Amino acid sequence: MGGCFSKPKPGAYLPTVELKIEVVLPEKERGKEELSASAKGSPRAYQGNGTARHFCAEERLPAPHPYPGAQDYVEAAVCHIKDLENGQMREVELGWGKVLLVKDNGEFHALGHKCPHYGAPLVKGVLSRGRVRCPWHGACFNISTGDLEDFPGLDSLHKFQVKIEKEKVYVRASKQALQLQRRTKVMAKCISPSAGHSGSTNVLIVGTGAAGLVCAETLRQEGFSDRIVLCTLDRHLPYDRPKLSKSLDTQPEQLALRPKEFFRAYGIEVLTEAQVVTVDVRNKKVVFKDGFKLEYSKLLLAPGSSPKTLSCKGKEVENVFTIRTPEDANRVVRLARGRNAVIVGAGFLGMEVAAYLTEKAHSVSVVELEETPFRKFLGERVGRALMKMFENNRVKFYMQTEVLELRAQEGKLKEVVLKSSKVVRADVCVVGIGAVPATGFLRQSGICLDSRGFIPVNKMMQTSVPGVFAAGDAVTFPLAWRNNRKVNIPHWQMAHAQGRVAAQNMLAQEAEISTLPYLWTAMFGKSLRYAGYGEGFDDVIIQGDLEELKFVAFYTKGDEVIAVASMNYDPIVSKVAEVLASGRAIRKREVETGDMSWLTGKGS
User: Fold this and answer.
1) Which family is this sequence assigned to (predicted)?
2) Of 273, 237, 270, 276, whose CA–CA distance to 255 is shortest?
């Protein structure tokens, strides 16, 4: 039986202790008991600072009324059956909100019309293989159920009733669902008696990024009702980390992926400011920095990465940051307002920060070793076009050089000295020169690490040790779509997918990672989208207008398209992602002509 847990650590969040809930699972779910604790592993409330902390059952998430009345629903004729052809989508109005109407294989489906991730209009997305793919960030939803099938994001779409009468299409929907535009999947709760042992958990998840959170949620969605503990170095509950560099003055509570009440309701325990220092795989036990020990049955390692820092003279001066937390980001904005900001590194993080600070800082300068920003990732031509956009927004570039020294006045940063002998005025400096896997605590664990410190896993996200899984930025895994090449893809969407696969395999479901990589960045109100895995590309075929930043770039290796990027060209990246995800190869000659008829999809 699972239980609830508290620990004498400041900021630790503890869900309810005295919560007894019976979960009745569908027949197919009842066999998933592999992780039930043995008698000795049954948890109990741990007395922290002399008091056990309790949350009452009344604090759970509000449930919809069990017997909704007719007045809670709206029904209307939305179109004639001949108004939509097969493969078409249309937004229709129901009075209380819009619905996405889809016609596929002669059948009509009605779903929520906005992607729950960031609110993209799904009518502008791509309909293919019984699912609709978001035009912005690539999340996929099953049109028959509304279920989220590929990431990013956590929630699914509402599915509404459709009926045909006298050649008219009627949709019936709950008013609440129309307004919410998102649906959290049904989840089991932690069946938690008040007696037990505090020193053990059924599932321990190290890291509360996308991989850790999705793993916990997937376990609950699959009917797992035993104890789940997540632990993090952070002081916050899981939050939307990619937003940190795109919107630096966003407050922690605005970034939260789930409210506190969610973790209480589903008995998902989160230990904040909790650092794991050793993992003992033989005895299935982890030790925290403060000496606290916790046994586990199954372990997910999702520690993420640690930013690289400068090793130059003066590296210890004040007001030099790597952006890891909301507090870091907030401080950078405060210090940069009306002052001089220097960004070291012209990768995604550095360029996002530079773009955001242009309206806040007196000056923004970027220092980079390469000739152009994003060169290794997006190629010379796209990198140069983006660089021009930044220069048009007052960003000054110092390329093909690096930092020699950081000079301070009264301990605070005043100047950045470059190897090219230039001296740049600076009141705040943000370092974005890459990251290394945060796996130092695993060196003596017996879990295999590669020469760079990454955790190699198989398609099921299993490490070299049975019962120990890993996911997220710190892993290398076989990319099915690129002939199982072992890769590291440190992106938000991929971490979600890996977290789900790890959870499914903790439950012995034999799931394999098959997600096609999809990522995005936003600068000056423009979004760049990217799908595939372009490492090692030998040519870039560009259609559209780079000068106008309305283009699509196809990255090829030999005769094959291996990645695509676009700006102001939606939903081309989602269309290409669907083609590649379906297993079809795209040949170089198909994209060289400029004829995109092979990609044509229907939407309205």
Assistant:
1) Belongs to the FAD-dependent oxidoreductase family.
2) 237
Q: Which residue has the tokens 């090692």?
A: 536
CATH number at residue 593: 3.30.390.30
Alpha-carbon gap, residue 303 to 257, rounded angstroms: 18
Using a cut of 0.70, tell me whether the model's pTM lies above it. Answer: yes
Tell me, yes or no, whether 213 and 360 share the same domain: no
User: 358 and 377: one domain?
Assistant: yes
Query: CA-CA distance, 373 to 352, in Å (whole number)?
Result: 12
H-helix or E-strand spanning residue 44: none
Last residue of a domain, one of 413, 433, 453: 433
Half-sphere exposure of 81 toward its Cβ, with a 13 Å CA cutoff?
11
Rounded to the nearest 10 degrees, the angle between the axes of helix 348-357 and helix 380-391 is 20
Full domain range(s) for residue 166? 73-184
Q: Average pLDDT of 334-344?
A: 98
Q: How many CB atoms lie within 10 A of CB 594?
A: 8
Using CA atoms in the order 584, 587, 593, 596, what is the torsion angle rounded to 10 degrees? Answer: 10
Residue 405 and residue 423 in one domain? yes
Amino acid at 17: V
Which tops the pLDDT comparison, 71 or 478?
478
Structure tokens at 2: 């699972």
- DSSP 8-state secondary structure symbol assigned to residue 258: S
Percent of the chain past pLDDT 90, that is, above it, reads: 84
Answer for the pair 53, 17: CB distance below 8 angstroms, yes or no: yes
Structure tokens at 31: 């066999």
CA distance 392 to 267: 51
User: So what's the pLDDT on residue 597?
Assistant: 73
Span 207-227, mean pLDDT? 97
The helix (H) or strand (E) run that includes residue 327 is helix 326-336
Q: Calculate helix-pair angle for 210-221, 492-506, nearest 10 degrees.
A: 40
How do strand 285-288 and strand 293-301 relate by DSSP bridges? Answer: antiparallel
Kindly indicate the confidence band of residue 198, based on its pLDDT and cuts at 50, 70 and 90.
Answer: confident
Name the β-bridge partners of 423: 417
**How many angstroms separate the CA atoms of 462 and 470, rounded?**
6
